[in-house]
User: Fold these one by one.
Assistant:
Number 1:
Amino acid sequence: MSWAPATASPERRLLEVTANERLGAYRLVKVLDPGGDCAPGQFAMLAAEHGWGGGEDERPFLARALSVARHTGAEAHFLLEDVGPGTRRLCELQTGERVLAVSPLGRGFGEPQPGRRALLVGGGVGIAPLVILQDRLGGSTRALLGFRDGERARAAELMLDVHLATDDGSVGHRGTVTELLEHELDEDPVAEVYACGPGPMLEGVRALCSRREVPAQLALEAPMACGFGACFGCVVPARDGRYLRVCVDGPVIGAHELDHVGDHAGAPA
């Protein structure tokens, strides 16, 4: 098994939208991208070709950084939630429209350490990079997923062998996905955790794995302006006092490198 990050220089490309499907509270946008395969955990900077701006003077929005949820055949899939005007425009894309995309970007997930099983932990729209990761690892890789409610939990349909938690108890365990993770590690602690989701969830995963000495790889989703490491708008503090740029030093960063995960460094809940 090998899924090394793509190393070709990313280029800005115009990609045609092939589908925009509702998935509970989210949208699954598919684009034609035959040459854009990427490693699990890498991302793209996306912007609509037209109507990409707001205000009286239609000031352009910044491109949005989105994890690639799946790459199948010639299509790339992205899981989106309407959380503001930029993502709203992407959620409204129609078949035949085009998006400007720069990808693949960032550092993706690494393979599990020898003798350890992979265990996927996701929250909200942050499950996106875990979908493609499970595709590469195999559908038997267990996924623990947490959502605010049953409508958002529909996104779990993208994955196999899922154990669910919801804040309101409408589906699966009533509580947090970190509670599911604690139980899973009680049953079998010889694991390597792969996580992406809201900042508080990632901090819970980091702290739990640190206490139990379980290796973990965290996909952060701090707000990005450029995607190339030039603007330093997505930095997070490392344990050794350095600052890491999520777009180039990550978005996947080893939990052991971080003293904590701030609220701003995660996906929408």
Note: The chain has a mean pLDDT of 93.
Number 2:
Amino acid sequence: MVQEFRDPYGGIQPDGRFEIAAATPDENLTLDRLDRRRSLLGQLDQARRQLDAGEAVRGFDHYRGMAYSLLTSPRMREALDLRHEPAAVRESYGMTLFGQGALVARRLVEAGSRFVSVFWDEYGLADSAWDTHYQHYPRMKEELCPSFDRAYAGLIQDLEARGLLAETAVLCLSEHGRTPQLSNVKGGGRDHWSRAYSAIFAGGGFAAGRVVGRTDRIAGDVVQTPVSPKDVLATTYHLLGIEPATMLQDRLGRPIPIGGDGIVRRELLA
């Protein structure tokens, strides 16, 4: 059988000779080809030196250093270690992947994190998330809603009990909604729908117990107080003390407002 890879530990010959196959000269490698390779290497080295001297690369090195610092931080390891939490607190979030992820989020906030995302991702078998194209009813009833309700309530109550809710904005968002009509598949199914869907906001200056907006009777279209994703972005920046109209420049030097064309929705504020 022909070996198709270089085994770094395969250089010991039966007669005791040590040989590195990759270091054996290729009989097809002429001086001309070798010179061209050397020239190409020189060009790559020169380009690398120019790149290393650029401002963008220096910025990259800075953020790479921050990432390494984060990975090696004892404070970070401590925040991610749920063994320090009482069993009753862990149970209050629900012993699910999302529930324990929400608990880690609270611990990260306590440790000083300014921005934390908790994703409800696929785990175990496929179709374990909210993409309910089929088996909509059993998945919502038996898995998705109970697990979310417990985790979300556990997070909000825990933040409030620790005096953190007033200064922590909690946004529960999705990329889109689901079709108003059910598909005729096993267990019922709802497909992707962008024209109307809901979000939940708590803490950090958001109003409590307020419902903003209304859809038609089949939840297909917004008929009152439409709020766009960019409105949510602008409102969140406002609560963080950042002017949504603040301009940043992209790599081409074009001015772009950080809040896009969104507006601060006072209806969402306390």
Note: Residues 1-20 have pLDDT under 50 and may be disordered.
Number 3:
Amino acid sequence: MDGRIPSNVTFDPEVNHLEEFAVIPNLARFINGDPIETLRRMATADALVLSRSSYSYVAPILNANGIIIYHPFWHSPIKEWLISDANGSVSDADLIARLECWKRERSDLKYA
């Protein structure tokens, strides 16, 4: 990492706090899977919350119909994405508007 990380780092799954996502009904979790399959799932997800990584940034570019929540980092968002604040929150009004638009788009796809 070009000298930015001074020593070896171990990622411990215990610090991920994935249990915080248990409040989301019907959430499908896919953890530590094949990278290509993971990218395919992310690129076709109905909703996707991006992490601050170039890997997760690629998927929503390929995802034409999903709701994307972007947290600012070195890559710029696409105008259709919802942008979270420093705490990871998005505007309720913006989310509702995007959900209504998404619902209409999905409905139109059924009859195309």
Note: The mean pLDDT is 83.
Number 4:
Amino acid sequence: MKKNITFFRHRRLQRALVLYVDDELPQNEAAQAHVHLEGCAVCRQKLADIRACRELLQVGRTPQSVPTEQLWQRIVRKTSARTQARFELGETFSSASFRYLRWPVVAAILIFFVLAVWMKSNDGERSVATSASATIDYGLFLDDLRHNVSEANFHKRYPAQVVKLAEARQAIAFPLATIEALPDSFRLDCVRVLECNGKKCIQFTCVKAGKAINIFQHALGQPWTIGQYAATRTPICNVECSLVNAKEVMAVSWQGKNSEYLAMGDLTPQEFAQIVEILQ
């Protein structure tokens, strides 16, 4: 969650850096930008790049010294004396015509430099975004459960498709959990295939005594987090598990033979133990 917050702060500030340089931000936003810049080396570097571009453009518009006509003629004579080919080139670019070409050349160089800086900054933003999206943040799902809201926010981040159990087996590369082995009291309500950075995982939604429980299964090595929630290590049915107790709901994660599991819901420890024992 902190990574996502930091990413969006970067995006919001970087869009306002030009206004910050020109002192056009409102006073409160300028103060916030100043505080963020003190602690963020990435944004400070981008600010320095923008200021460097401004200085180069200013130099291009108002050169400190203007070469004289005699200097240009001397340059043409020296370069044309090297070889016959350079002589012909010197004749083509006479002192009169070269005088009109030199500033467009400077402008082209400056444009190339600005484009290079812009592409570098965009590559950095894309790498941050890719890194963030490659990790599944189940903390978003847990937030929605705690506040008794729909899963829309989570599924906007990670697109989900409702499928049949047989289709789910074909969609993933690891063996599907034996969800049918759960007691009849765990009624399977829905199966979804989630996608994160090109990798697919499964979400089972079961109902027990009117209470919903969601069991996620993803491949070993899939980066994931549970956001800001602290987890404690505890053995359940001789399986090393991570337990998050968020008062309203609980979350238990453990590693199986070919995949990892994360179960969330308003269930008792005994009910969670039953799930771990059967699905391990």
Note: Strands lie at 136-137, 160-163, 187-196, 199-208, 211-219, 224-225, 232-236, 239-245, 250-255, 259-265.
